[in-house]
């Protein structure tokens, strides 16, 4: 019988029944894939293990940092996004025991499963930059990568009248690879409109060697870099922040391979932290050598444990870690997992789709949509490499609505990705 009851919050007990599917993580990927599974097969018994009380729409934090979105609209109670019919286990997974088909929780309980979906996201490794954790949120040190700090970015931007503004990007992979530079463009656009840009030295420090990983989008971005007269510092990796002293320290790799420690004073600094696989994934039998949950890049099935799938930021596919990617992956995992359960061939192939709407100015976005190998995969018949007002309306107005009412509710528009 189909189960269409409201989500139930699990009581503290020992789990002696085996769920059809256990999903680790109630973020963008975990909720989307659960909704997609239940839409196809409402009778499945599914438990989502998720410790947080709230669910965030992180893609809008860039807009919050630019003063263009209310941060409170990016957060909703977790029970509002849990699909009807699931069991929400309000705990964290401490360990995965894939040979026993069970996960062990941080409260000591174990949860048995028939199939497992790993959607635990990634870990922001703030501690890998000396002094950063203490410095954040004061003395001009901020990051759009935290709900509570994105509004502080906007406070700094709107109060800045002159001086030095640094923006940083760590080594890949990170979620939303464009977000570090989006923060810079929206800040510069505000300073340009308010007539203070001439008095501000803007510098983008990236640990990488290029401005953006897909070359087709770089010319349009470079026009904005020049318009805002921003200095680009490549191979420049933030390693320490002295908040009260207002100095940031970078390891800068020279062409000769020699790395030099360089100190740069700032009046404001927007930091994007290094990003790593969650420890309990890295330490598990599911991890690839880099620590991510290993999957076949097309089917999203684990290569050694066929009853395990993964999607979202935690999985090992070499694509852009974005909610847009998770939206497409959710359908691939839902259909392939159900086919596997029914003893059929898996019908779906993920093409590496991810999207990064680059907010180059208020009212204009370069909508970078691409798949494996940097192949351009535009959803709309527009030149994807040029900034457009339509893409801005999509990013600022339509996508937030669609996230809550479409992606998290298994309304799977524009999701055909089979190759
Ligand atoms: P998350 O949404 O982070 O969810 C992971 C969940 O797993 C969390 O709820 C967490 O509590 C849970 N979890 C972690 N550990 C455990 C555990 N041990 N046990 C149980 N549960 C656990 N994407 C776009 O598509 N477009 C954009 O423009 C964009 N811009 C961005 C801008 C910023 C500033 C940021 C921060 C992100 C942006 N993203 C963007 C990226 C997007 O938000 C992520 O790629 C997306 O949220 C990934 O979904 P996920 O479910 O894999 O991870």
Task: Explain how this protein is built.
The protein is an alpha/beta fold and 419 residues long. The chain folds into two domains: 8-122 and 277-409, FAD/NAD(P)-binding domain; 127-275, 3-Layer(bba) Sandwich (FAD/NAD(P)-binding domain), CATH 3.50.50.60. Helices cover 24% and strands 25% of the residues. It has helices at 28-40, 61-65, 78-81, 132-135, 150-159, 179-193, 218-227, 279-282, 323-341, 389-405; strands at 8-9, 19-24, 46-49, 54-56, 75-77, 87-89, 93-97, 102-105, 110-118, 123-124, 141-142, 163-169, 200-206, 231-233, 236-242, 247-253, 259-265, 268-270, 275-276, 308-310, 354-361, 364-370. Strands 1, 2, 3, 6, 7, 8, 9 and 20 form an eight-stranded mixed beta sheet that branches. Strands 11-18-12-13-14 form a five-stranded parallel beta sheet, with helices on one face. Strands 15-16-17 form a three-stranded antiparallel beta sheet, with no helix packed on it. The longest helix has 19 residues, at 323-341. The site of flavin-adenine dinucleotide has 38 residues, from helix 1, helix 2, helix 9 and strand 21.
Residue share in helix: 10-25%
Shape: globular
- State the helix count: 10
The unreliable regions are none
DSSP strand count: 22
Give me the CATH fold name of the largest domain: FAD/NAD(P)-binding domain
Radius of gyration (CA) equals 22 Å
What ligands does this structure carry?
flavin-adenine dinucleotide
Structurally, how many domains make up the residues? 2
Q: Outline the biggest β-sheet.
A: 8 strands, mixed
The helix/strand class is alpha/beta
Mean pLDDT across residues: 95
Distance between the termini: 34 Å
The CATH superfamily of the largest domain is identified as: FAD/NAD(P)-binding domain
**Share of residues in strands:** 15-25%
CATH architecture of the largest domain: 3-Layer(bba) Sandwich
The top level CATH class name of the largest domain: Alpha Beta
């Amino acid at each position: 019988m189909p189960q269409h009851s409201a989500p139930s919050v699990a009581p503290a007990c020992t789990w002696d029944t085996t769920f059809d599917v256990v999903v680790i993580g109630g973020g963008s990927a975990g909720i989307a894939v659960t909704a997609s599974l239940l839409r196809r097969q409402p009778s499945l018994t599914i438990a989502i293990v998720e410790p947080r009380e709230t669910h965030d729409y992180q893609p809008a934090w860039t807009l919050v940092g630019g003063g263009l979105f209310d941060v409170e609209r990016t957060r909703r109670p977790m029970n509002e996004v849990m699909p009807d019919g699931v069991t929400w286990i309000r705990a964290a997974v401490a360990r995965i025991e894939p040979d026993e088909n069970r996960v062990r929780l941080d409260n000591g309980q174990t949860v048995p499963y028939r199939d497992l979906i790993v959607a635990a996201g990634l870990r922001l490794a703030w501690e890998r930059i000396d002094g950063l954790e203490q410095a954040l949120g004061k003395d001009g040190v901020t990051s759009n990568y935290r709900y509570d700090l994105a509004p502080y970015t906007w406070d700094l931007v709107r109060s800045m009248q002159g001086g030095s503004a640094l923006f940083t990007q760590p080594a890949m992979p990170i979620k939303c690879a464009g977000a570090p530079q989006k923060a810079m463009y929206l800040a510069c656009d505000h300073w340009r409109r308010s007539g203070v840009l001439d008095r501000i030295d803007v510098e983008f420090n990236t640990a990488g060697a290029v401005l953006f990983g897909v070359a087709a989008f770089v010319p349009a971005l470079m026009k904005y870099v020049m318009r805002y007269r921003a200095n680009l510092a490549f191979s420049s990796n933030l390693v320490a922040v002295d908040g009260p002293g207002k100095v940031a320290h970078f390891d800068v790799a020279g062409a000769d391979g020699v790395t030099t420690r360089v100190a740069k004073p700032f009046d404001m600094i927007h930091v994007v932290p290094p990003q790593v696989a969650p420890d309990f994934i890295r330490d598990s039998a599911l991890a690839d050598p880099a620590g991510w949950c290993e999957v076949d890049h097309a089917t999203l099935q684990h290569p050694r444990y066929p009853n395990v799938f993964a999607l979202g930021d935690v999985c090992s596919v070499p694509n852009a870690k974005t909610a847009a990617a998770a939206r497409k992956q959710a359908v691939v995992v839902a259909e392939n997992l159900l086919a596997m359960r029914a003893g059929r061939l898996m019908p779906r192939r993920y093409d590496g789709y991810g999207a990064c709407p680059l907010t180059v100015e208020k009212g204009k976005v370069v909508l970078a949509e691409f798949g494996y190998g940097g192949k351009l995969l535009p959803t709309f018949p527009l030149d994807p490499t040029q900034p457009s007002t339509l893409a801005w309306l999509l990013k600022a107005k339509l996508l937030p609505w669609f996230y809550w009412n479409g992606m998290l509710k298994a309304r799977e528009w524009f999701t055909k990705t089979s190759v």
